[in-house]
Amino acid sequence: MAAGTFVLERAYDQASGDCRDINFDPTVLPMGIAPSRDPVLAARAAAYSVSFNRRQREVAGQETP
């Protein structure tokens, strides 16, 4: 049974994309919603943070004054 359909209409490169300065953290949730006790969530949050910081350093090194 399908739950929905995903349609990708366009893509942007990382340097100019809307998500360039956003770090996805699966443990940051709106009020009233709590993460599960799954320890993988904390590990993913830490890994995504490291990845985000590496991307930021990479982009900063490519920018020209």
- C-alpha Rg, in Å? 16 Å
| Range of strand content | under 5%
* Average pLDDT over all residues: 84
Which stretches are low in confidence, meaning pLDDT under 50 for 5 or more residues running? none
> Structural class of the secondary structure composition?
mainly alpha
Helix content: 25-40%
Query: Secondary-structure element order, as H and E?
Result: H
Please give the alpha-carbon distance between the first and last residues.
52 Å
Give the overall shape, derived from the CA principal axes.
flat
The total count of strands amounts to 0
Count of DSSP-assigned helices: 1
The major pleated sheet works out as: none
InterPro entries: Catalase_sf
GO molecular function: heme binding
Question: Topology of this protein?
Answer:
Elements: H1 39-62
How does this model look, in words?
It is a single chain. With 65 residues, the protein is mainly alpha-helical. It has a domain at 37-65. It has 1 helix and no strands. The model has no long low-confidence stretch (mean pLDDT 84).
